[in-house]
Amino acid sequence: MYTPSPFRDDDLENMRATIRCARLANLIMATSGGPLATPLPLLLDESEGEHGTLYGHLAKRNPQWRIATIGDAMAIFTGPEAYVTPSWYPSKRQAEHVVPTWNYIAVHAHGPIEFFDDPDRLLEIVTRLTNIHETSRATPWAVSDAPVDFIATQLREIVGVRIPINRVESKRKMSQNRPMPDRIGVATGLAASKLARDQEVAPLILVQD
User: Fold this and answer.
1) What is the DSSP string of 13-27?
2) Strand partners, 163
3) Distance between CA atoms of 165 and 54, rounded to whole angstroms?
4) pLDDT score of 95
5) pLDDT tens for residues 167-208?
6) Ordered alpha helix ranges (H), 136-179
7) φ, ψ of residue 71 in degrees (nearest 5)
8) How many CB atoms lie within 10 A of CB 31?
9) Phi, psi of 49 (to 5 degrees)
10) What's the confidence (pLDDT) of residue 119?
11) DSSP β-bridge partners for residue 76
12) Backbone φ, ψ for residue 7 (5° rounding)
């Protein structure tokens, strides 16, 4: 990932927070037939390895798990993002050489990929993923709410994914390369936006040195 030094984020906890908050990742593998990608939810087990280990599952009919991988797999996680108009830059009044840009957070996690179909391991992963995404609901649904035989049938239709992370890189592009008045202008503009995703980005912009 191209990451100029102002946007590089080496804070492991920041990376983990982005992974935990991402609702969907993109799993990418290089193969002899070209790159393959699948969007899927992944959970991070921080207790496994220096950088943690990712778990998830694919549909068994998805051919991606049957094709040999060249090198490591990569999982891409994205955080808050927003379009930035140069109209928010006070510096525009002094210099017209400004253009639009995009603020965003992205984490790329790399590691060897393992696929498994052991029903006990699959049940554990499905249960953990479900609990993560149900926990905020007033009445959370649990895997155990469904009939045991039905769940067993569903598990036979998926393949587990395990990626021990051996390299992780993070880019946090939040107008750090702009002078402070411009940063304040961007934060103010995003905060006033009617879009919830813009409002989410506004407080992430550093407006004090």
Assistant:
1) HHHHHHHHH-S-EEE
2) 54
3) 7
4) 66
5) 999 999 999 999 999 999 999 999 999 999 999 999 999 987
6) 148-155
7) 75, -160
8) 13
9) 85, 170
10) 96
11) 26, 108
12) -105, 0
Structure tokens that stand for 179 in this block: 């002078």
Around 126, how many Cα atoms within 13 Å sit in the side-chain half-sphere? 24
| Strand boundaries in the chain, DSSP class E | 25-31, 34-40, 43-45, 53-59, 73-84, 101-111, 114-116, 158-164, 167-173
- 88 falls in which pLDDT band (50, 70, 90)? very high
* 77, 110 Cβ separation under 8 angstroms: no
User: Is 150 exposed, middle or buried, given 0-12, 13-18 or 19+ CB atoms closer than 10 A?
Assistant: exposed
Q: Which residues pair with 74 in a beta bridge?
A: 28, 110
Handedness of CA 160, 143, 16, 21 (dihedral sign): positive
The answer to whether 132 and 19 are in contact (CB under 8 A) is no
Of how many residues is the chain composed?
A: 209
What token pair was written down for 118?
């052991």
**Which amino acid appears at position 96 of this protein?**
E
Q: Which of 29, 59, 54 is nearest to 125 (CA)?
A: 54
Read off the amino acid at residue 135: T
